Amino acid sequence: MGLAILLGLFGGCVVIGLPVAFAMGVAAFAAFWYEGFPLMVTFQRSISGISVFSLLAIPFFVFAGELMMHGGIAMRLVKFASTLVGHIRGGLASVNIFSSMLFGGISGSAIADISALGSILIPVMKERGYRPDYAVNVTVTSSIAGIVIPPSHNMIIFSVAAGGGISISKLFLAGVVPGILMCICLAIAAYVLAIKHNYPSEPFPGLRAVAQSAVHALPGLVTAIIIVGGVLSGIFTVTESGAFGAIYALLLTAFVYRSLDWNGFKISVINSVKTTAMVMILIGFASSFAYLLALYQVPDKLSEALLAISTNKIAVLLMINFILLMLGMIMDMAALILICTPIFLPIARDLGMDPTQFGIMMLVNLGLGLCTPPVGTCLFVGCAVGKIRIEETLKTIWPFYIAIFGALMLITYVPAVSLFLPSLFN
Question: Which of 28, 110, 149, 166 is 20 to 30 Å from 419 at the Cα level?
């Protein structure tokens, strides 16, 4: 009965439009009350959930990304990408994807990627004769690179949800190749569609222009090098590297590029505070929710149910991916990481899957959920930036879904895709 109250009340709150974080809090509060626990336990579990040192890195990552977005870094990365890959057929689509790969590695946020790059590239693509739905589809799906390519605050959330036993530096390394692979798959899909619709290519500006744009873009890319390199080298903890990255981003945009004005700084601070508060509330209530799931032995029961259907590793992992995809269509990514990791990670471990590989698989899978209705945040933002109805994009976005799903299957069933790079640093 307690489990029915927990899940039923949570589902009911989500249906009526209550934010997921508060839906989990209300459901956990009711379940604790039903079980006869002191109601203070709800808040104690929530506070203990956010009392994790590595979570301090999240506000620094978010702030660095906001500074980069409002400080003109995106435009420099777009220029670099344009000189490098703009001459390919449908060149601006390749520029869009490559820019997302670069900017995503700095901001760590799919929404920041769409907001910064989409506002630049979508209007330009429409002016050059690209269909609006094509421009939005490329922008939305390539934004997932910010979730997978380090630094990514979602990797920190996954590490915490997994009990803190998974190295964040290993997750950072593991995300590089899958992120690049996913962007290559998207670029192939974009190229095929560009040929089909006879989209133009940009003239190659020459090696000198490529070198100049690379020099202008390099200081911005150093932000990711500071954060990731500091962690991998052992010089900084994840939190310390995030702090240094934020300081560097502030100095770079305000005093070197001089592209960050006072208004941009204020917006960056406000957005960072809002995002951090939302994430921390979510993590806190999710900790209470996850405690009750463990109390009711949901992970064990679900594991038994899946293995009762099949004990074949390929089939079980496919079922897990399918469940995550379905959940990703209706729930927030951070919430699903916190709820589903304690449930599915033990099953993956029992099947012999490396926890780091599972983490990357989950991030790519839930990233795809951000691009799908009815709760596809990236899809909504992309359509708003591109001034196009969601229904129009959904008619033509399926080739990009297939591209991401293809990359997801390689990540799921070929361990080397995620684990090759971390193995070099062991």
Answer: 110
